[in-house]
TrEMBL record:
Coiled-coil annotated spans: 163-190
Cross-referenced PROSITE patterns: HIS_KIN
Reaction(s) catalysed (UniProt annotation): ATP + protein L-histidine = ADP + protein N-phospho-L-histidine
Superkingdom field: Bacteria
Name of the featured protein: histidine kinase
Segments traversing the membrane: 12-32, 38-59, 66-85, 91-108, 144-166
Taxonomic classification: Bacteria, Pseudomonadati, Pseudomonadota, Gammaproteobacteria, Alteromonadales
Molecular function per GO: ATP binding; phosphorelay sensor kinase activity
Histidine kinase domain span: 199-402
InterPro entries xrefs: 2C_sensor_his_kinase (IPR050980), HATPase_C_sf (IPR036890), HATPase_dom (IPR003594), His_kinase_dom (IPR005467)
CC annotations in GO: plasma membrane
The protein's Enzyme Commission number: 2.7.13.3
Alphabetically ordered keywords of this record: ATP-binding, Coiled coil, Kinase, Membrane, Nucleotide-binding, Transferase, Transmembrane, Transmembrane helix
Length: 406
């Protein structure tokens, strides 16, 4: 579409140049006929066309729809004046007014394009009215040119409508193509992260096993050593996380989907967050149906945990406030609403968050990107917005299991 607009901008400049030449030739013809009043009028029209063309060329780098509207509007007015001086509706060149109509519907938004069409219709109506009330007009010719004017109205309307429809479809196709490109880029980024994660997990397993074995041997030799007792819990925690990661990977490889009870999922979320963010106040509020369930795989829990952890980290950064997690069922979906105080996020950064990689102090927003992609796999959605300047709201929506089956 940008290429079409650039081509039509060049065409407008060419029309101004051609108009200036034609008006100058018409002025010279009036000089041979000694019609000096018309000579001046044609020269003025030629000078205006040349001036408008020069201004259009000087402003060729500016991409403004208002400027494009002004250029088309001026050329329509100049052509209407020229037609009024040379016969109006009886001038065979009357059909050239279809050119600026086509350009307007290619370049401009619908309201401005319809204004250009309305101006040409008003001009045609004035030409037709003047011809019908002229005392020197022949009745047969009046009927003939009236039919030509009517044909112009129909042709202009059809041309405008068809160009508008084609342009709308082209814009929709380009938007879909852009969306596909963004989705492909996001999938490539997710694949790269998944590949790196699998590699690091594999490399982590060996040193972890070595450390665990060394820890067990030391405990046998020094069973009462306080440092060894303190190391036991973190080591078990890392083992458990590694096991969970392997189960998630296995679930994804086999595309295993299972039913998750919402109440049990909330309990598990609370348990995980209590360990990871004991210093942050996280309030869980559950409303709606008891026993509701959703269908997902093992990647669901890490995806939601990541969202709540992001909120908890923001609270830790601010040093005050709490994270509120509201669970409810509405319109056949499970809705999880996460609220937290905000200090670092803006509307601009939230628009990119979860859709593409976004630079942040702690990384590139990969966690949000993965959470967003994971929820989409379950026919779910993630919406992040600023409720107020100091409050971020994340809304996770996943279809209920029974509703999804139906």
């Amino acid at each position: 579409m940008q290429r079409v607009v650039a081509s039509t901008s060049w065409f407008i400049r060419a029309l101004y140049s051609a108009s200036a030449i034609i008006f100058t030739v018409m002025a010279l013809l009036q000089f041979t006929r000694q019609e000096f009043n018309l000579l001046v009028v044609w020269l003025v029209l030629g000078l205006l066309s040349a001036t408008a063309g020069a201004v259009t060329w000087l402003l060729r780098e500016r991409k403004s729809e208002a400027l494009g509207f002004f250029q088309i509007f001026v050329i329509v007015i100049l052509w209407v004046c020229a037609l009024a001086l040379s016969g109006g509706a009886m001038n065979p060149a009357n059909s050239f007014l279809l050119l600026p109509i086509a350009i307007a519907f290619l370049m401009l938004s619908a309201p401005r394009a319809w204004v250009i069409l309305l101006i040409t219709f008003i001009a045609q109506a004035l030409f037709l009215w003047n011809m019908q009330h002229s005392s020197s007009a022949d009745n047969a010719l009046v009927e003939h040119y009236s039919a030509m004017s009517f044909t112009f109205f129909v042709a202009a309307t059809l041309l405008a409508t068809m160009i508008r429809i084609v342009r709308k479809r082209l814009e929709n196709s380009q938007a879909k193509l852009q969306k596909l490109r963004e989705d492909q880029l996001r999938q490539e980024q997710i694949l790269a992260v998944a590949t790196a994660s699998a590699q690091y997990t594999h490399e982590l397993a060996t040193p972890l096993a070595t450390v665990s074995l060394l820890h067990e041997e030391l405990r046998e030799e020094f069973p009462n050593h306080p440092v060894l007792r303190e190391m036991a819990e973190p080591l078990e925690r890392v083992k458990l996380l590694l096991k969970d990661l392997r189960s998630v990977t296995h679930s994804l490889d086999n595309n295993e989907m299972r039913e998750f009870c919402v109440d049990e999922l909330l309990v598990e979320l609370q348990e995980q967050l209590t360990i990871a963010h004991a210093s942050v106040s996280i309030e869980f509020v559950s409303e709606g149906e008891s026993g509701a369930s959703i269908e997902a795989d093992h990647a669901l829990l890490p995806a939601i945990l990541n969202l709540i952890r992001n909120a908890a980290r923001e609270v830790e950064l601010i040093g005050s406030g709490k994270v509120s997690v509201h669970s409810s069922c509405e319109h056949g979906s499970w809705l999880l609403r996460i609220e937290n105080p905000n200090q670092s996020m803006t509307e601009e950064s939230l628009e990119r968050l979860g859709v593409r990689r976004a630079q942040s102090e702690s990384g590139f927003g990969i966690g949000m990107l993965l959470s967003h992609a994971t929820l989409e796999r379950f026919s779910g959605s993630l919406a992040v917005r600023l409720q107020t300047q100091n409050l971020v709201v994340q809304e996770v929506r996943i279809p209920l299991y029974q509703m999804r089956d139906s």
